[in-house]
Amino acid sequence: MTRLGALVACLVVGLAAFPADAESPRSMLYPRPRTGVRFEHARHAKVACLRCHASVVRSVSAADRNLPLEEVCQPCHAKETRPLSGGRPQHALAGCTTCHVGYRGGPTAPPQEPHPEARVHFSHRLHGERGVGCESCHPLQQGSPTLPSMSTCLACHEKTRAPSRCGSCHLTTKEGLLRTRFGSEILLPRGTLRADAHDAGFRRQHAAQARRAPSYCASCHASEQCLRCHNGTLRPLELHRGDYASFHAQDARRDQPRCASCHRSQTFCLGCHQRSGVASSAGGGFKPSTGLVFHPPGFSSVVPGPTHHAHAARRNLRTCTSCHTEESCIRCHGSRGVGKGGFSPHGPGFVRSPTCRMLAARNVRVCLRCHAGSDPKLTCQ
């Protein structure tokens, strides 16, 4: 076979000549036509591609029907297509059924079979003008041409600096995103271009890929798709099993920031812990009904020690706010609380400093969260 016409020969005719190749995405991008034509490329291996598919040299769209007409086949199949007296073709049962499956003969020719369009942008003429041969994209396997996979296209495009934008080959929607749904079928990446195979675990592990190349993800996904999970209002049921609440503590201790990507600690986590009796109330006078102890002895002692909570608060204050509200801290550290002026969070020299005066002048209500109205420190003098 020659090297240019084989694309349509396998892309459109698409019969039993296709190998069971995992790299061949024929069911999605190249839908198999429901054709009634019996054809085997392996038996025509010595016939030049352009002899049967001459129209590919002018084809600029994957939607072009570059199938050979009957007069193209007649020179080789003269016995099956010999004319009757009067010059009319003989559509006899014995001859036509050699190629046309199910045809019962008669005065009319076998009907032209519809074929589905390939779901890609492709110009045979452009590739032929660039010297790309048929077998460059459609190597023969057991005498039959195969469909091009994405890795086959990228191998050539990267060397020749051909367009690498996804929409150059893949169909797009009116919003500019790649079209990924075709009826009940969904087009998913298989990890050929990047480590982004959308398998069963990708939804839980996509964060690294999303941080590495957000614009790449945005070629298929609109921001609304991300917000369905990341805005914290809807929990995808497949992320946590039904009894996840009973053992989620291990995951929360291991990677609290990951939990915070969906859950707000001061509302979701704290509210649930207080309702279930495993957290202190906002007032601080409540002990968990379960009797569990979450902190070691001396954790909230007035005298700092090796197990004092100050060390944990400096290390990761977000861990503290998973259970405690601002009121828990003000009770001891604020001048209007029980502690009556405990440890100052401002550090030495803050009072009478320019920063102190600037903050008080901007919004004194922030200062009143911890300081009583009669506190002389409010004057910044």
Care to describe what's here?
The chain has 381 residues and is an all-alpha fold. It has helices at 6-13, 49-52, 70-73, 93-96, 124-129, 134-137, 150-160, 202-205, 207-212, 214-217, 223-230, 249-254, 256-260, 265-275, 309-315, 317-320, 326-333, 354-362, 364-367; strands at 140-141, 144-145, 181-182, 185-186. The protein has a two-stranded antiparallel sheet with strand order 1-2. Strand 3 and strand 4 form a beta hairpin. The N and C termini lie far apart (95 Å). Mean pLDDT is 74; it is low at 1-25, 84-93 and 282-286.
Q: What would you report as the Rg, rounded to the nearest angstrom?
A: 36 Å
Going by helix content, strand content and strand pairing, the class is mainly alpha
Number of strands: 4
Low-confidence segments, ≥5 residues, pLDDT <50? 1-25, 84-93, 282-286
Q: How many helix segments? A: 19
Mean pLDDT: 74
Helix content: 25-40%
* Strand ordering within the main sheet: 1-2
Note the run of SSEs as H and E: HHHHHHEEHEEHHHHHHHHHHHH
Q: How far is the N terminus from the C terminus?
A: 95 Å
Q: In one word, what is the shape?
A: elongated
Mind describing the biggest β-sheet? 2 strands, antiparallel
